[in-house]
Amino acid sequence: MESNKRPAYLLLSLICLVTLDQAAATTDADRNRPYNNSTSNHLGNILLELEKISASLSSIGYVNSKLISNLRENASRLYDWRCVKVADIAQLGYTCTSGIGCHKFYLANLTWNGARKSCRKDGARLAIINSENEAKVLKNLLLENYQFSAYVGIHNQFKEDEWVTVFGDTLAETGYNRWSVGPPKISKANCGVLFEDGKLLGIPCHVERSYFCEISETATC
């Protein structure tokens, strides 16, 4: 009789174990579900914060780049703002035109940056054309020296398609924005010359050219 009861007990025990395992599995799943949802939400929030930080860093990088650009331009402006004695202008070889300024044509070929530094030695700057009349004055100097182009004080080295003067002013602000064949679209033509037709032209800054230096009337003392 006992031998007949033993299989029944074993079967009942097996059913109980299976039931308990299923209950335990269900309880563990229920226990882990809110944890997994919470973790997922937390990770999602972290990703959002990282995206915000990334956007902020990009914005800071742009602002820093702009500040550096402005500081460089302002430093150039302050450096160039020095007076030159009227008596010294003629000795330096500058020709003055009333209402326009004093200019000198340098036949020596230099890069744009080399020309800029050369002008500074005179207490001058690379010429900035402010009017049609000034463009004509420089064009005449160019032709008198049998040259077809010479550097002037404009460039777009800081931002593509944005031509500015050595002071950081736009060409619209200078009063002269006439191009020989339109503003250059190629990335290497970052420095401006006055072409033989009296209009502006962009060429690579490392190319050596003649150049115009200018001392404005307000810079004399």
TrEMBL record:
Source taxon at top rank: Eukaryota
InterPro entries: C-type_lectin-like (IPR001304), C-type_lectin-like/link_sf (IPR016186), C-type_lectin/snaclec_domain (IPR050111), CTDL_fold (IPR016187)
C-type lectin domain mapped to chain residues: 102-214
Keywords, alphabetical: Signal
Region forming the signal peptide: 1-25
PANTHER family: MANNOSE, PHOSPHOLIPASE, LECTIN RECEPTOR RELATED
Entry protein name: Hemolymph lipopolysaccharide-binding protein
Organism for this UniProt entry: Ceratosolen solmsi marchali
